[in-house]
Amino acid sequence: MIKINAKIRHNLWRPLRRFYTRMFLNLWGQIPAKNYWESAQIYQAHECQKKTTGLGYQIVIPAHQETIMPPWTIGGVGPPTYQQTQFHIPDAYCYQIPHGRIASPYGDVIAPDGKLIYDGSKESGRQPQERSVCTLKFPRAQVIKQTVGVIAGVKGGSNYYHLLVDVLPRIYLLKQSPFWSEIELFYMNQFLPGLTKLKPLLSLVGVPEKAIFWTDAYGHIQAQSVVATSLTGLPGMSYFKPRWVFEFLRSTYLPQAQVPATPRPKLYISRSRASFRRVLNEAEVLDYLMPLGYQPVWLEDLSFPEQVGLFQQAESIIAPHGAGLANLIWCQPGAKMIEVFSPEYLPECYWVIANQMGLAYGYLLGQKQLNQWHILSAQEIRNHHIWVDMVELAAAVAWLTSG
């Protein structure tokens, strides 16, 4: 009998499950939210005027300014989003709403009046009235007579980067608030099979698995009280994460590091086993880099403590864009990094991490392929494979080895 691994089974079953769930909900479900509150603070002020009891709002980290450096790149000038170096960081806060609801894998908080708390969750590219909880039918809310803390985030259970910078820091904010001791259950994205090995990261910050309500795409609960936090990214610039996020992660997880027995100061992170965003001429790239001391690494072969230890001792890193570069968080100040992008997809997230960690950061653009015969969709642009220009790679290596 042919055995099918868990990831393949999940991918085969998911479309069927989604189809039948959607069909059922269209007949018997309900839209969770109608209209929205612009922010938790505005909702709290409104309810305080009505003398509603059980409310709470606490600023954990006050607003401030942060500065980062522009990246190195061929030609010296990056796109506009890489030229902004001054950022206003708004207050990071926690809030409590009695008899609130939580819906969707994004951790959308819905007030008792049926309005979405807009600033407490994120659904990429959608205005509040376009959010899933305002347009799609969900199952009727499951009543939970407990205080529930929201730690879910976009791709929080399916992407290593988002787990680190969007989910875990929300736990930090909750723990710094006066509401932490009241929380009995945590609302969190269901982990995909490939990330289940990371569940212990939650328990290390005080969230045991037995205290988690694992939600899927159609999660919908009503709690005795809901405790939630602000998001870690900036409004309109979710890629920018403030310095406190990384200070928290380093203080929590660096003690778990398993440093390689043999030093590996120069790393090339390979995506050759990935289904997208592979370096097509990786053999040529490695033929050039390995004589210079760079060692190829496949992060999927390493445990979390091994990844932390590997990056903690790294001095020079070259890698195509991918979630594994969230491990830059563990690098020591002064390390250098070259990120290699697809020709038309330049996300800023690892430029930010590198700067916040005191690393020197640069990037290369892959070459456009001449045989491209159709207009790429947004997803194809994000997932496009990469062809590295060897002359530009040599220039990047020269920058890495400069003083």
TrEMBL record:
UniProt key word Lipoprotein: no
UniProt protein name: Capsular polysaccharide biosynthesis protein
Xref: InterPro entries: Glyco_transf_61_cat, Glycosyltransferase_61
GO function term, MF aspect, one: glycosyltransferase activity
Domain Glycosyltransferase 61 catalytic intervals: 160-338
This protein's record includes keyword Repeat: no
Annotated Pfam families: Glyco_transf_61
